[in-house]
Amino acid sequence: MAEITVRAFARFREMFGAETALSVPSGATVSDALVQFAETVPAAKSELFESGVIKNHIVLMYNRERIDAEDAAEISLEDGDEVVLYPPVSGG
Questions:
Q1: Fewer CB within 10 A of the terminal residue: the chain, N end or C end?
Q2: Within 10 A of 91 (CB to CB), how many other CB atoms are there?
Protein backbone atom coordinates (compact mmCIF):
# COMPACT_ATOMS: atom_id res chain seq x y z
CA MET A 1 0.00 0.00 0.00
CA ALA A 2 1.02 3.58 -0.64
CA GLU A 3 -0.24 6.59 1.29
CA ILE A 4 -0.84 9.52 -1.05
CA THR A 5 -2.49 12.93 -0.84
CA VAL A 6 -5.06 14.32 -3.26
CA ARG A 7 -5.37 18.12 -3.11
CA ALA A 8 -8.07 20.15 -4.84
CA PHE A 9 -8.07 23.84 -5.71
CA ALA A 10 -10.50 26.54 -6.84
CA ARG A 11 -14.02 25.23 -7.48
CA PHE A 12 -12.87 21.64 -6.88
CA ARG A 13 -11.79 22.56 -3.34
CA GLU A 14 -15.35 23.60 -2.56
CA MET A 15 -16.74 20.40 -4.07
CA PHE A 16 -14.20 17.79 -2.90
CA GLY A 17 -12.52 19.36 0.11
CA ALA A 18 -9.01 20.77 0.22
CA GLU A 19 -7.09 17.59 0.95
CA THR A 20 -7.82 13.87 1.06
CA ALA A 21 -5.45 11.13 2.22
CA LEU A 22 -5.78 7.88 0.27
CA SER A 23 -4.28 4.44 0.75
CA VAL A 24 -3.80 2.92 -2.69
CA PRO A 25 -2.59 -0.58 -3.58
CA SER A 26 1.04 -1.06 -4.56
CA GLY A 27 1.46 -0.41 -8.28
CA ALA A 28 -1.64 1.82 -8.50
CA THR A 29 -1.48 4.57 -11.10
CA VAL A 30 -2.66 8.16 -10.82
CA SER A 31 -5.77 7.09 -12.78
CA ASP A 32 -6.41 4.25 -10.34
CA ALA A 33 -6.11 6.66 -7.41
CA LEU A 34 -8.56 9.09 -9.01
CA VAL A 35 -11.09 6.30 -9.54
CA GLN A 36 -10.71 5.40 -5.86
CA PHE A 37 -10.98 9.10 -4.92
CA ALA A 38 -14.22 9.39 -6.93
CA GLU A 39 -15.65 6.42 -5.02
CA THR A 40 -15.05 8.20 -1.70
CA VAL A 41 -16.00 11.70 -2.92
CA PRO A 42 -19.16 11.25 -5.01
CA ALA A 43 -19.06 14.74 -6.58
CA ALA A 44 -15.69 13.87 -8.12
CA LYS A 45 -17.04 11.13 -10.36
CA SER A 46 -19.07 13.38 -12.66
CA GLU A 47 -16.54 16.23 -12.49
CA LEU A 48 -13.42 14.19 -13.27
CA PHE A 49 -14.67 11.36 -15.49
CA GLU A 50 -16.66 10.93 -18.65
CA SER A 51 -17.52 7.38 -19.71
CA GLY A 52 -14.94 6.09 -17.22
CA VAL A 53 -12.10 8.19 -18.66
CA ILE A 54 -10.48 11.23 -17.05
CA LYS A 55 -11.72 14.36 -18.79
CA ASN A 56 -8.97 15.99 -20.87
CA HIS A 57 -9.69 19.51 -19.65
CA ILE A 58 -8.96 18.69 -15.99
CA VAL A 59 -5.62 20.13 -14.88
CA LEU A 60 -3.65 17.35 -13.17
CA MET A 61 -0.39 17.68 -11.28
CA TYR A 62 1.73 14.83 -9.97
CA ASN A 63 4.39 15.76 -7.42
CA ARG A 64 4.30 19.40 -8.63
CA GLU A 65 4.60 18.57 -12.34
CA ARG A 66 1.72 18.96 -14.77
CA ILE A 67 0.59 15.74 -16.41
CA ASP A 68 -2.17 14.94 -18.87
CA ALA A 69 -4.88 12.30 -18.64
CA GLU A 70 -2.85 9.83 -20.73
CA ASP A 71 0.15 10.18 -18.37
CA ALA A 72 -2.13 9.49 -15.41
CA ALA A 73 -2.66 5.93 -16.64
CA GLU A 74 1.10 5.32 -16.84
CA ILE A 75 2.47 6.88 -13.64
CA SER A 76 2.71 4.46 -10.69
CA LEU A 77 2.28 5.98 -7.26
CA GLU A 78 4.62 5.63 -4.32
CA ASP A 79 4.25 6.40 -0.64
CA GLY A 80 4.12 10.16 -0.04
CA ASP A 81 3.14 11.16 -3.58
CA GLU A 82 0.77 14.03 -4.22
CA VAL A 83 -1.89 14.44 -6.90
CA VAL A 84 -3.37 17.91 -7.39
CA LEU A 85 -6.63 18.68 -9.20
CA TYR A 86 -7.59 22.00 -10.77
CA PRO A 87 -10.83 22.63 -12.63
CA PRO A 88 -10.63 23.81 -16.24
CA VAL A 89 -9.39 27.39 -16.55
CA SER A 90 -10.98 29.78 -19.00
CA GLY A 91 -10.74 33.43 -19.65
CA GLY A 92 -8.74 35.81 -21.69
A1: C
A2: 3
